[in-house]
């Protein structure tokens, strides 16, 4: 019986458009064992869902279809074949097959795909490769591959991406890079990157952003920088920055006063 819900696909046809004929199928013996079913679980069908169900029922047969002329069959077989057969698929001519293999390849064997011509494959590789092996992908031509790399690269190696051409990548670097390197990103061209830098900087570093053109960055400076630098922002063109600077100075002054009182109480003479 054809699977309910798939009847709209029409009569089962193979990848070349010909009708599926169980009588001429090399896997005809499986039909009697209920290990395949026309219109539901069939390796000769053009639809990936039916091919997938065939291998779900017969995973041990996946290795026999890694050179099948239809890319969908090879791609689905890659989901079920044992890992020892996966490396041969890294050279498959179709990116869907290589992508499917990349989902399951052991990390060391993923290195064979770091320069794959298709971005979706490289994205998958960057998502699974050991972080310490990602260095060569930090200069990938695709921004999203580099973004994935920036999310996973060890912090000590992030410095090579501080000046990436894409602002979204640099923003991710600013989120993760060590504090000592933040000053090197304080003059970034993108205001969102500088905002992230300002949020993470220590008070003693924030003076580097005193003259930032973005009021959001100056607001962060006014709220947390050392008082001797915040004084410059009490007359800032932006009202929110001025208010933040004045409040910060008042709180700092009050804190100093409390410390003085405590000191006097502890040492009355």
The Rg value, from CA coordinates, equals 30 Å
Main sheet record: none
- The rounded distance between the terminal residues' Cα atoms is 99 Å
By DSSP (H or I, 4+ residues per run), the number of helices equals: 12
Report the count of strand segments: 0
- Ranges with pLDDT <50 over ≥5 residues? 1-7
Q: Which band does the percent of strand residues land in?
A: under 5%
Please tell me what the overall shape is.
elongated
In terms of structural class, how would the helical and strand content be classed?
mainly alpha
Reading the helices and strands in chain order gives HHHHHHHHHHHH
Mean pLDDT reading: 91
The amount of helix comes to 40-55%
How would you describe this protein?
This protein is mostly helical and 269 residues long. It has a domain of 81 residues. Helix 3 packs parallel to helix 4. It is elongated. It starts with 27 loop residues before the first helix and ends with a helix. The relative contact order is 0.05. The N terminus is likely disordered.
